[in-house]
Specification:
This protein is of the alpha+beta class. It is built from seven helices and 17 strands. The strands form seven sheets. A four-stranded mixed β-sheet has the order 12-13-17-16. Strand 12 and strand 13 form a beta hairpin. Helix 2 packs antiparallel against helix 3.
Length: 308
């Protein structure tokens, strides 16, 4: 894939409609078509740009990749959440360093906009006083520093390797000759860490993503930070798959009007109220949900004050 900006290649803004993109492509394709004496290399760039921007799904993935501050965007077939970390999507695998998992709350509007998110969390860093060793150590003479013994059980094809911790060193592989006075042998110091990143558009509840090397220090290596998303309501907005839900609380005076103003992450909307006002049926506004594909639903509630 070309590293050039596809919007720039087609000569359109990043907010251009699909029709505007199509018109720009046709104009450029005619201008640079090799049969018309144009540049074959430029024509290929134009074709590649339109292939990615002319399709709404590919365009959404491309926009999410361009906003990713962490990785090279390779990978998982266009899922915006996975692309956020370029082939670093959270999955079970054997590791020598445990991942640090934290939960964060993301509002429905933050998810809609793909907002910038700043989080602060406790992180274990290598102790500078002892360079992460924890102090002066004696290697266990029984297990030679392995911290365990392996025993073969069975014969022939039915052989099983059983690992048992060393009793002398409690599985550590060493004993302290003297502990570091700063970390008391823990080899780490806990500090507050603050990081900022851009959320993928449409990030949903229960999704995981990983920041490589931003976890705790453990046995000479920094682990990864795994973030779990808890999607929460925000300013009366909720997310349901690709649909945007808004809970509107109206007064008696407001429901007697022909239209009402409803907030939306992209700006205020003025919608017409039906003649038959039924709070059990939400109002539907097409294509005002996530990615421009879902819809927006306005749930109507009556809010009044009764005289005592």
């Amino acid at each position: 894939m070309s590293n050039e900006n596809f919007y720039t290649i087609l000569g359109v803004s990043e907010n251009a409609t699909q029709d505007e993109i199509k018109k720009a492509y046709r104009k450029k394709a005619i201008e640079y078509h090799p049969d018309k004496g144009g540049s074959e290399e430029q024509f290929k760039k134009i074709s590649e740009a339109y292939d990615n921007l002319g399709d709404e799904n590919k365009r959404r993935d491309y926009d999410n990749k361009r906003n990713n501050p962490f990785a090279d965007f390779g990978g998982f077939g266009g899922n915006p959440f996975e692309d956020f970390f370029g082939n670093q999507f959270y999955r079970q695998r054997k590791r020598t360093v445990p991942d640090k998992v934290i939960d964060i709350n993301v509002g429905a509007i933050e998810s809609f906009k793909g907002s910038e998110k700043t989080i602060t969390y406790q992180r274990k860093h290598s102790c500078k006083m002892c360079n992460g060793t924890g102090g002066e150590k004696n290697i266990c003479s029984d297990c030679s520093g392995n911290g365990f013994f392996e025993t073969r059980i069975g014969t022939g094809l039915f052989v099983q390797l059983v690992r048992q911790p060393c009793q002398k060193c409690s599985g550590n592989g060493f004993s302290f000759k003297s502990r570091c006075i700063t970390c008391n042998g823990e080899s780490t110091i806990t500090q507050m860490e603050t990081i900022s990143f851009k959320l993928p558009v449409g990030v949903d509840n229960g999704q995981f993503f990983k920041l490589q090397g931003n976890g705790d220090y453990h046995q000479g290596i920094y682990g990864n930070l795994v973030i779990k998303i808890n999607l929460v309501s925000e300013n009366n907005f909720e997310k349901s798959e690709n649909d945007l839900i808004y809970n509107s609380y109206l007064t008696i005076k407001e429901i007697q009007k022909d239209t009402i103003d409803i907030p939306h992450p992209d700006g205020m909307l003025n919608i017409k109220l039906p003649n038959e006002f039924d709070t059990s049926k939400p109002l539907r506004i097409k294509s005002k949900g996530y990615y421009g594909q879902g819809d927006m639903y306005v749930k109507l509630f009556i809010k009044i004050k009764r005289n005592p």
